[in-house]
Amino acid sequence: MLEDEEVENKQAVRWYRKWYMMINEQLKIRAADQGLANAQNNLGWSYLQGEGVEQDCNQALKWIRKAADQGLALGQNNLGLMYDEGKGVAQDYNQALKWIHKAADQGLALGQNNLGLMYGEGKGVAQDYNQALRWYRKAADQGDALGQYNLGYMYDEGKGVAQDNNQALRWYRKAADQGHTSAQYNLGVMYREGKGVAQDDKQAARWYRKAADQGDADAQHNLDVMCDEGVAHNTIKK
User: Fold this and answer.
1) CA dist., res. 114 & res. 98, Å (int)
2) In 3D, which of 231, 175, 167, 229 has the Cα closest to residue 199?
3) pLDDT above 90: residue 191
4) Spatial distance between the Cα atoms of 191 and 208, rounded to a whole number of angstroms
5) Average pLDDT of the residues in 51-60
6) CB 188 within 8 Å of CB 205
7) In the Cβ-directed half-sphere of 49, how many Cα atoms lie within 13 Å?
8) Could you tell me the pTM of the whole model?
9) Which residues neighbour 133 within 8 Å (Cβ) at sequence distance 6 or greater?
10) Could you tell me which residue, 225 or 4, shows the higher pLDDT?
């Protein structure tokens, strides 16, 4: 009897979810059909991620393109990403660069960071670290954690700019304070090695632990090493 009730409950939940997704999709389509660029982009993103609707890259492309054609910066960025990753359309770095550039030119921090990535990786354009640095800085100056991390990395590696541990530390810290996992890990490395700051195992362990708590395997390993050396206590959340 209990098993029958459990089956019925599961079926009810399944039908409710199906009904909810249908209603949710209809509401989003209704808003997008009114020509609202934000609604079009949101609907496209929902289709791309399968959030509240069945995942459909073709529908995602259709609606995100409508938003981008209306000049919505976020839609332009997302359309560029679809071309970059070949989702719903043949991969085309030139088109990716075109649309991401449009978003970046409108001041969208996310687009500026992504444009920096395109220049840094030479996708759709000749590799140019100076341009990558320029766009990362624009995003970073707006408080974008990805831009701050990437700008820190450029200073750390001396790409497009003279290598500068102090600047690398500064930008990694800004991103790390916002919860960026790789920035937290790299900040741990800088404290561990005394790069741009006095060597400090306590601070190194602190930042490794933050990154490890977010699932960073390298941070977990480094923290384990420090525990074995007796300079840190492993309190990683399981």
Assistant:
1) 12
2) 231
3) yes
4) 10
5) 91
6) yes
7) 11
8) 0.84
9) 116, 151, 154, 159, 160, 161
10) 225
